[in-house]
Amino acid sequence: MNAIAEQPPFYEKTDETDLSRRVKGEGSKLTVNYFQFYVTFPPPILDIPCVEMSDSELLIATEKAGTFDFLNSPEEDIYNDVLKKSE
Amino acid sequence: MSKEIPIGVALIVCDRVITDAATQEKTLVGTFNQLQSVAFPSICPRMTVFVGVTNGRGTIETEIRCINESDNNSVVFGMKGMIPFNNPNDVIELAYQFNNITFPKPGMHSIQFLCERELVLQRRFQLIIFKPPTQPA
To answer: B37: which strand partners?
Structure first.
């Protein structure tokens, strides 16, 4: 007869309190430290030839771009009346 | 006796790292291992390198750097710093967000993380010239 088969089954008796104590674990705590770094590099220096515009050239460029077109809108006419009264 | 260097657990190149405000969990967004550019020098607006190391003791001197392996291992960018380990079981996570990186030349690049001047982690990524597809006549 097989001796192993004759051994009675053995079950470890556990209750809930015992189980809760077990799952807590022991030993050192595993911690995570997080560090974040932000590095912004300066823009690269490229050899791009550039010529600075004069004031008159800038004025012509802005006029052509339509920067002062808002002065021709009808909403601006109210200021004409104010100017007439002051004269 | 030489100092024991930490063990690397992660080195991931991505677009950005988001930290959950409630749980402090990290989400790595947009991982990649290749960059394309139409011309060089090329500027990468943002690149984040996420590094995780453990098994460190005391304060460790670290360095992160990017080298161009196709150009005699020339250093493209990098930075140095010290990281503290309270316990060897501690996991130190580092997120380096680099903005406006200038890559002078294309080729095989490598991002290396060194502790005490010894290589711990390495990740390669390719920088290639983008050629737009030719439209049929």
So the answer is: B129
